[in-house]
Amino acid sequence: MNRILEVNTLTIHHSSSNLRLVHPLSFTIKSGEVLALVGASGSGKSLVAQALFHILPTNLSWEGDIRLKGNLVHNKNVQNYRGKSMAYIPQSVDALDPFLKIGKQLKQLTPTHTGKKEIIEGLKRLGLTKSILTKYPFELSGGQARRILILMALVSEADLIVADEPTPGIGEQATEDFRKLLLAKKDSGKAVLLITHDLDLASDVATKIAVMKDGKMVDIFPSSWLQKDALDRNNLHPYTLELWNSLPRNLNTQEWFHATRS
Ligand SMILES: Nc1ncnc2c1ncn2[C@@H]1O[C@H](COP(=O)(O)OP(=O)(O)OP(=O)(O)O)[C@@H](O)[C@H]1O
Ligand code: NI
């Protein structure tokens, strides 16, 4: 399988003090893979996504090696990748251009005819109507804006999609539609980095799961390990086990937790 994204010893620190917010971490996402990045609030997930696109807050710096299809992504060439071969669904809906109608913003991403068809279909699948295309971002609700951001990433031709908490506030139906669209991207050989608090979504769509805690990637493992009878669970970090045991569907499997720790 082709490697789409390779991240090698990425660290993120305060520019002024060298104090680390993200400790050295490395991972790879291949064509057709979804890597779910999960972990506590404040553990550094969004910073990792921002570093990939060179859009960290100015008081922070990063070091390491980021490659897209083997090519080093650096300061001077990142514009050639952003929004083209790497699409980003940011955690904040402020990312929409406030002065440009939604239709125009979507059109910029997909100038081709097929793109237009995909936009119309995508709108429908995400529970939006065509009328939204003539609106400005300020006329949308938070959930609608988030769905537009999802659509933007999904209609783009990007090889890599980075989605930072795309589902809060969009409702159950749109979350389900998003899940299906993600699986379609996966099947068509794209690579996805999905940052989420939704562990059910993560275990459902991801091929690999990475867990962050206090700026460290404490685990990265194939999602098949989460199958109830998979022995490899023994290899997971206690924090990962804690996360999974706190899922409502696992609350009755505490025996398993004790069995794996003894
Ligand atoms: N510009 C900044 N300057 C200093 N610290 C920052 C800055 N931006 C983020 N941080 C800190 O870095 C840590 C990681 O933040 P980040 O946004 O990556 O967390 P996260 O895992 O995405 O959390 P959440 O799940 O809540 O979105 C947090 O402790 C946050 O306070
Ligand atoms: Ni975040």
TrEMBL record:
Its main location: membrane. The keyword Methyltransferase does not apply. It comes from the Bacteria. It is found in: Cell membrane. Its EC number is 7.2.2.11. It catalyses: Ni(2+)(out) + ATP + H2O = Ni(2+)(in) + ADP + phosphate + H(+). One of its GO terms (molecular function) is ATP binding. InterPro entries: AAA+_ATPase, ABC_Ni/Peptide_Import, ABC_transporter-like_ATP-bd, ABC_transporter-like_CS, P-loop_NTPase. Belongs to the ABC transporter superfamily. This is Nickel import system ATP-binding protein NikD. It comes from Gracilibacillus halotolerans.
